[in-house]
């Protein structure tokens, strides 16, 4: 049910139904499906019928949606952390990534560690699903946590770090907006 050009997630045999819409809602209905609904165990979920076919549900929460590294200094690395919590019933798991990065930042870390006295900015990830744990540059479309199974309240701690050298940047306020994307895997 797939090739390099398409993917059919589920199919169904039924005798009727359709799509009803208004300015505020869409309702998809089916008739004559058998069996339909979900049967579960501790390890598996079997979903029968068109209305039950879904890749999975996903929720994400962020403990601190706004962080400040404070005033950067050549003598130390400044850091601030937030915890992202993911729950998904998708049997294929999820991936958490940076969807977009905008604003002014200092030079992205390239050697795996933000170091005092160097102009560097990056993020480290801690948790069971962390894709990496050393410091990486904050870039769009970069995966930061991932699982290939159902997860409940799975946490990834993102620690953003920055440092400057004595002659690299004029004094000022620098900021960056990082958008996180959590999606179920296909």
Can you offer a commentary on this structure?
Helix content is about 0%, strand content about 45%. It has a four-stranded antiparallel beta sheet, with no helix packed on it. Strands 9-7-11 form a three-stranded antiparallel beta sheet, with no helix packed on it. It has a two-stranded antiparallel sheet with strand order 1-2. The two termini are about 15 Å apart. It has strands at about 15-20, 25-30, 35-40, 45-50, 60, 80-90, 95-105, 120-125, 140-145, 150-165, 175-185. It is mainly β and about 190 residues long. It folds into two domains: about 1-55, no CATH class; about 60-185, Immunoglobulin-like (Sandwich). The mean pLDDT is about 85. It has no helices and eleven strands. A hairpin with a 4-residue loop joins strand 3 (about 35-40) and strand 4.
**Sequence of strands across the biggest β-sheet:** 5-6-10-8
CATH architecture of the largest domain: Sandwich
How does the major sheet shape up? 4 strands, antiparallel
CATH class of the largest domain: Mainly Beta
